[in-house]
Design goal:
By secondary structure, the chain is an alpha+beta fold. 45% of the residues lie in helices and 34% in strands.
Length: 113
């Protein structure tokens, strides 16, 4: 007599394999969300540091700005670096949020216009 039904052992093995696949996919998606969130925070910090350099280009006396990105406040401190020429100098922009920070350097020139 041929049996065409699954045994209890076969069904349990199938459920275990399926569960392993589902849990692996869930872990992968969760991990990817964490990576994307970290990359987006880095993007916010870089953009804030660039905005700081642009703020100095607009008004050379600015020393700090604050921006909000995704509900988090990013503090940007600005300082003048070395003079490159009579009309140009280096600006160091440091963006901080929580425990992460990024520093960028830019050149600001004032041609008297």
């Amino acid at each position: 007599m041929l049996r065409k039904a699954f045994t209890l052992i076969e069904a349990l093995i199938a459920v275990a394999v399926l569960s392993l696949i589902v849990f692996s996919i869930v872990a992968l998606v969760t991990n990817m969300g964490s990576i994307v969130r970290k990359d987006f925070k880095t993007y916010c910090l870089v953009q804030a540091a660039i905005s700081g350099i642009e703020a100095v280009r607009a008004n050379g006396s600015i020393r700090s700005i604050s921006l909000i990105c995704e509900g988090e406040t990013i503090r940007v401190s600005l300082q003048n670096g070395s003079r490159i020429s009579d009309s140009c100098y280096e600006v160091i922009s440091r963006a901080e949020s929580g425990t992460r920070s990024i520093s960028l350097k830019g050149v600001v020139c004032d041609f008297g216009g």
